Amino acid sequence: MEFTAQQIADVLNGTVDGNPNVTVNNFSKIEEGQPGTLTFLANPKYESYIYQTAASIVLVNSDFSPTSPVGATLIRVPNAYKALAFLLEIVDKSRKNKEGIGSMSDIHPSARIGEKCYIGNFSCIGENVTIGSNTKIYPHCYIGDGVNIGDNCILYPHVAIYNDCRIGDNCIFHAGAIIGSDGFGFATEGDTYHKIPQLGNVVIEDDVEIGANTTIDRAVMNSTIIHKGVKIDNLVQIAHNVEIGPNTAMAAQVGISGSVKIGRNCRFGGQSGLAGHLRIGDNTSISAQAGVISDIGEKQTVMGAPAVPSKSFMRSYVIYNRLPEMYRAIEKMKSEIEQLKKQL
Amino acid sequence: MEFTAQQIADVLNGTVDGNPNVTVNNFSKIEEGQPGTLTFLANPKYESYIYQTAASIVLVNSDFSPTSPVGATLIRVPNAYKALAFLLEIVDKSRKNKEGIGSMSDIHPSARIGEKCYIGNFSCIGENVTIGSNTKIYPHCYIGDGVNIGDNCILYPHVAIYNDCRIGDNCIFHAGAIIGSDGFGFATEGDTYHKIPQLGNVVIEDDVEIGANTTIDRAVMNSTIIHKGVKIDNLVQIAHNVEIGPNTAMAAQVGISGSVKIGRNCRFGGQSGLAGHLRIGDNTSISAQAGVISDIGEKQTVMGAPAVPSKSFMRSYVIYNRLPEMYRAIEKMKSEIEQLKKQL
Amino acid sequence: MEFTAQQIADVLNGTVDGNPNVTVNNFSKIEEGQPGTLTFLANPKYESYIYQTAASIVLVNSDFSPTSPVGATLIRVPNAYKALAFLLEIVDKSRKNKEGIGSMSDIHPSARIGEKCYIGNFSCIGENVTIGSNTKIYPHCYIGDGVNIGDNCILYPHVAIYNDCRIGDNCIFHAGAIIGSDGFGFATEGDTYHKIPQLGNVVIEDDVEIGANTTIDRAVMNSTIIHKGVKIDNLVQIAHNVEIGPNTAMAAQVGISGSVKIGRNCRFGGQSGLAGHLRIGDNTSISAQAGVISDIGEKQTVMGAPAVPSKSFMRSYVIYNRLPEMYRAIEKMKSEIEQLKKQL
């Protein structure tokens, strides 16, 4: 869809500075602007790009006064970044307006589906499933028996939710996310392993986003719990009986071992890992690739493997790079001491 | 389904101590017990919880004598843990009793399917596939041409097994597991890569469990081999031509490079990685996040990246944290030696 | 399919040395040769195996003269390795000759599909999708609205390509690969996160191979770009707005954070990770498990976490293992210096 600068200014209650009839059909970054796209200038640091950008329209703050000629049409608004975010969300919603039940989907007669839902073709909705209103389930999703899903959720293609898991409102699951697979639990019997049935479930509260191909295992008993507002990136592993506090965020490829309990508002860098049964306090940051093997309190920042407070890590790390120099110093002092001994 | 304490006691040949008509429909841990659930007390360490738990029924050993009043109904059995495991397995089986061929599945006429199988809707079974008895294939699985699968297997949704792979009896594949994708093999041609066809397969023996979204690549020629009793967690990568010995277990996000040969009864911690072509002896443990770059013998325990015997690792690691102190000691000694030299 | 030694020799313009009627139906490595298979001897290092192999046929260079009796039938060709590669490719193609549109697929009427394509059952092809000639899309793939795919591509089962992504010619996507999922982008609002719509796409140029269960996120705006000839292994994470230069190769479980720009002909070892917004020059190698936190120039080799030039890494690492010895030396020197002081 194409829009003119005037149409966009009208939506934003902004004013046009330049050709009101120029049209755009996409967004761009100001430094990579293409004709036919709309970009924005919010951070003065990027001002130089506005004089070069090939973008057709630039959203600017009302008080922006160019110091050189600008080729693009400007739309002046009180807050260019907020105006952009507003436009992005309108476009985002318009692209995700799918509705209706696919004729090639497989929905158990006992399932209850809310209003204005989308169930794509080749999706399976099991026995006694309930799905709230306005939830969108893309093709090839599998919703196991007894699962509850709230309102306004999006499940992209190939999401699998095993039986009896519970999902809140406003959650997003990216393609290939697996919720409720068996925890990795075995009893040893001599040299072999005997599987311990995993009969709990996964509970995901409201406003959670789960990345593509991320896996969250069901609890042995009770629940693996992902609290409200948690954001998890792609290819993350959450083991059985883990509990993650509200608004904690995890970057890609993080691994959390069984029965770990994590506080609220924590941040995990990519590829970091936690050993089993740990407790992590609120507002704590775990650096990328850190390997955590002991409990961590509140408001800590840890790095390294095994992970230590980031100050200790940096202190040791700086010196780590001087090891060859230290080694030589030691060798030199050894001989100096020998010489001193002889001289005495 | 709900059961009374009396019904459960009858199944377990136990005796009821309390209300025989109280009902439960789920399990719980004793420290997180909820009304309507059954829990157990096997380890005396947890005894204090039995006086507080809200669970409706607690399985206890016959000789348990409470030291305070207990609200829950007790069922006395000779071994509370074994009785629980027995109940868990009954419930687990009852939840996985699906049977029959989905009317919306796609099964090649040449495929041979054993008795009492379940083939879910939207699953594809290719040409000349054979599937044993009592095997359950959930929706959205892809079984490529010429694949053989044994008896009593479970393939959860979205499992893909490429052509010509062979799977034994009693195997479990969690959702999104990929078996038999091409190994990562390329010949360089100047600056570009030329793909080497990967014409081998994957052979998985009996009693193997493969985690969600784990990937196991087919061999260039011959087979990538996963021997009997191996247990692999989620998001693990097994490259082409790897061989994993019986009863070896791997935690999540482990990565095994091409042509590695691993012995029996080994254990791999999460996120550990092995370089290509290595040999790992029997009964060896690789710690979480270890990076193994050389062969390891039998019964070793290694840590770190590059991985070294855990004793060496711990010895160096303890001192690593004293590096700033060592650095200062060296600087101090340098000046002391200078002074001594002057004094002489 | 079975072939005689004579039939194979005719295809390769080779000559048979032994029984021309012996038949084979598969390939093997010379050290693991089985009856009924064809193997090859190219590297003189492996010559001893030719006297023991159970393979029925061995391709050898024309000038090979055995020093002991050989049981297998030989086929003499000018270059045994090239002849093998030629046979492998013939067999590989014959196994991937699927064609036609599955009657249980879901193709939007506006989609344009080229000639000689294969669209497997239960695949979804969205609105305004275009697919070139001779492209093979296996069952359970999801191709979102507005996606363009070129000629001669292969998409194995369970590949998901979100809306508006663009794929070149001759690309291979292994099972479970996810292209165009949302980047992990949130604005903090007090303690909570507000999702930033991800409205860009992913552009993949010609001759790219993407491994099983690998995830590539779409850009916020503009494109995440994978240039011509890039090869990516399984379970790799590519974040939003990343750009990967031509012919760069990445082993399994690599993680690339947002907005990283990587040059051409780089190589990434398994499980390595890059922090956001970095620039990596051409022809640079990142070792397995390395953690890169700063820009790297051209033709570098880096190791470790944080990653440093491999020479520095090895220098410090060698000494790291001598830390206990250094610590003892320091303690010893301290007391020696004290004694010297006293003696003066």
Question: Can you characterise this structure?
Answer:
Three copies of one chain form a homotrimer. By secondary structure, chain A is of the alpha/beta class. Chain A folds into three domains: 3-95, MurE/MurF, N-terminal domain (Udp-n-acetylmuramoylalanyl-d-glutamate--2,6- Diaminopimelate Ligase, Chain: A, domain 1, 3-Layer(aba) Sandwich); 100-313, UDP N-Acetylglucosamine Acyltransferase, domain 1; 314-343, no CATH class. Helix content of chain A is 17%, strand content 30%. The first copy, chain A, has five helices and 40 strands. Chain A has a twelve-stranded mixed beta sheet with strand order 8-11-14-17-20-25-28-31-34-37-39-40. The first copy, chain A, has a ten-stranded parallel beta sheet with strand order 9-12-15-18-21-26-29-32-35-38, with no helix packed on it. A nine-stranded parallel beta sheet of chain A has the order 10-13-16-19-24-27-30-33-36, with no helix packed on it. In chain A, strand 22 (186-189) and strand 23 (192-195) form a beta hairpin. The longest helix of chain A is centred in the last third of the chain and has 21 residues, at 323-343. Chain A is flat, with a radius of gyration of 28 Å. The termini of chain A are far apart. The mean pLDDT of chain A is 95. Chains in contact: A-B, A-C, B-C. At the B-C interface, strand 23, helix 4 and helix 5 of B face strand 4, helix 3 and helix 5 of C.
